[in-house]
Amino acid sequence: MSAVEIQIGGLGGQGVILAGMVIGRGLVLYDGYHVSLTQSFGPEARGSACSAQLVVSREPVLYPYVTNPHILVTLSQEAYRRFVPSLRPGGTLIVEEDLVRTSPLPDAVVLYRVPATRLAEALGRRLVMNMVLVGFFAAVVGLPHPDSARRAIRDSVPAGTETLNLAAFEQGYDFGLKQLAGSPVHASP
Predict the structure, then answer these.
(1) What pTM was estimated for this model as a whole?
(2) Could you give the CA distance from residue 96 to residue 90 in angstroms, rounded to a whole number?
(3) Domain, as residue range, for 119
(4) Angle at 155 (CA atoms; ends 150, 161), nearest 5 degrees
(5) Tens digit of pLDDT for each residue in 61-79?
(6) Can you tell me the distance from the alpha carbon of 46 to that of 146, in angstroms, rounded to the nearest whole number?
(7) Is 187 a domain residue?
(8) Percentage of the chain surpassing pLDDT 90?
(9) Which end of the chain has the least Cβ crowding within 10 Å, N or C?
């Protein structure tokens, strides 16, 4: 497997960095991958643009920065506008369907939409939308293995929130499996 570049973009307060950390931790500690995780965020704690970038490989990662992601996840319109031009042709685009309009849509990408915020709200806490996203990601991308992601969630979230975060993961994972049983929207020229 050559290196796979993953970028997750959104706003501060959406749990973008934690989502990247959970995916990376699951891949490194439990699935045996090499992962580089870099982060960027604005000066404000909440509401400013932020992103988590992962480079995933079975071999040591030689260059730790994402330049043209194979997989792009956007949780805000600003992140979509900013990062979608760098998505590789044929790449995978995952968007929070209530927060991101996919217009214009790049050519030749595989598009998945997930109502992560609504699924989290159904659990009573909008705050866990990032773990809904991690579950959806694990289902449609196949990384990390779901058991590895569950272990990484237990390792990463604050004590006392494990049950809620795992429930959010399961919501996203189940939604992703159901979406795979259908077919994603394909955009082509």
Answers:
(1) 0.92
(2) 20
(3) 4-182
(4) 80
(5) 999 999 999 999 999 999 9
(6) 29
(7) no
(8) 85
(9) C
